[in-house]
Amino acid sequence: MGMQKILIYYKFTPIKDPEAIKLWQKVLCDSLGLRGRILVSRHGLNGTVGGDIDALKKYIKETKKFAGFKDIVWKWSDGSRDNFPRMSVKHRRELVGFKNSDDEFDVDEHGVIDGGTHLKPEEVHKLIEQYGDDVVFFDGRNAHEAELGKFKNAVVPNTRTSRDFIAELESHKYDDIKDKKVISYCTGGIRCEVISAMMKKRGFKDVYQIDGGIVKYGEKYGDDGLWEGALRVFDGRKTMTFSDKAKTLAHCHH
Question: Nearest-CA neighbor of 139 among 126, 158, 124?
Answer without folding.
Answer: 158
